[in-house]
């Protein structure tokens, strides 16, 4: 195997796989990237058996073949090389010689035959607008649970209901749901619903941010893939049942406040400085056209702010984790939001004023 | 001021049972494997001492009356005594169940003299509870403790700054609070036997030998102790909630050990919930029949407080241990504590689990520990805590209810 490639292109390829490489080194081969060389291009593959990525790049191929090398070591070397052509040449026993300008590195790899097979995905793919998917991820990714014991909450639940595609995530204390109309046929799996893991979602988001064209989705059994013309990202669905989220979404009710999003967001950020450091608990009081935010921390002091709002409902005093409200306000673009409350032990509901298809449900705190 | 209750457990027993008054009495543990916990002043001349086996004690004093310990009574009486101290100064540092330090420097204005405060405390404890105590009054905690030790029972001893040097000159270093057997042996190997010698010994050499406590040892030798009397509010935050138990007999069957772990987990969980803390680290301590002891800990992905979660974590650790010998003692501890937030869960099953746990706690609060329990604990006798830990405190998270 022998090929030459521009440093800039190869560095891009390696940067893309760094997030996927297995950090725990349970299987040594998973710390490596697979480089396959043929027909004027190289294919770079990395996987941790949960999430995998495969990308094609232009290269000057002299002799076909394949190698695997430590993704981390290779990245550290390539990163510091001068901006010139790099040449790769395989030797016996999986050794590889890397030359660039006046540098020569010899790296030992593992047999490419040990590298896990990349699953082959269903050909009947659906083309989807990448901007819509990106927005749906951005508006739900923050409420994915990071508690490994609740594995069924460690991803985004995706389900087609009627004409809409729903993305839902929850950590057991709050939930976000976005619903969008999607043109075109979707695989039957979308009707059953499935959970994509957080790590895969993070890689998917990175991928969508760096490409221009739309993406196509493929599903085979429990594998989900998304690809454009040069890159395929694949991930295994989370094995577990997502809770019945429709049951915890409260009715809108009569106690609805219309609040200026920016005023509310900045007030929350200031007030939460003096909330309890771990629980981030703050108090919110709704009364006639006024919202009052208060916080107190016995070691630091206390704070109080008032904002004029539109509100004609019951007087309600309720405790919330400020971070949960901040998280959703930060991804809402509208000028105003609606806050629906029932009483101080029932979940609150937040939506942007012009988009009824996005909402967040937040359970209060007992303060 | 240091106050030390005289033969506390034995004296409390003599008060609650008049038939025991004036007789040699020794309080012993409830368990099979027990020793003398406290001997009354009537028993002490015969040579009965704390820590003796029952056989040794009977050899020394055949007419000795043995009384099983009633720990709940002792902690109750102790709380009463500690409350009396509160009337003279807010700066009360509970040192153990029968000892406390009081900083009375700010109270002299109200009560006249330290001697008067000491006599008021003594007479109130005597008339109210029928107990005597030894009080030491000195410029610092180290000397006060030394002073209260000098006259027992019912003593009142002053140590003045001018006499400190004479007092310490020939005093064996082991008499100082804070210098234990190991430190004594180490100091002896440096040729230091008395406090006078310790005070004169070059600080640099002590520092080289003992590290940061070296300079403190030197000060102790000179009778200097800068540590303040810490009231409960000033005591460092509690960092762990744990329970351990010596088993009636050595056990090696997994099933039996799991049952003890369930009991310990319930005790730890109960106390964690009562004081609204949760913890991320669970530690399992095992002591083998030959007294070799070790601990293993595991960090959980979230802070836990339910007995069931603590039990599962403890069993998981136990299953990772290869038992070399039968087990003599088991301990379960929750640490990396967080003061629990009151975030309500969104989903019904989580809500139900929290409500169930809270209801069980309410029943056990009202009707006593282990009124409602897991079925597998029904057959277990003597559940709960049987020993008053040195860290016991009349209030707060360290107020461990004992049987």
Secondary structure tally: strands of chain A: 26
The level 1 CATH classification of the largest domain in chain A is Alpha Beta
Helical percentage of chain B: 25-40%
Q: Assembly type of the shown chains? A: heterodimer
CA-based gyration radius of chain A: 25 Å
Rounded mean pLDDT score of chain A? 91
Helix/sheet category of chain A: alpha+beta
Distance between the termini of chain B: 31 Å
Class per helix and strand makeup of chain B: alpha+beta
Radius of gyration of chain B: 24 Å
As a percent range, the share of strand residues of chain A is 35-45%
For the record, the CATH class of the largest domain in chain B is Alpha Beta
CATH homologous superfamily identity of the largest domain in chain B: DNA polymerase, Y-family, little finger domain
The helix-strand sequence of chain B is EHEEHEHEEHHEHEHHHHHEHEEHEH
Quick recap of the structure?
The complex is a heterodimer of chains A (367) and B (403). With 367 residues, chain A is of the alpha+beta class.
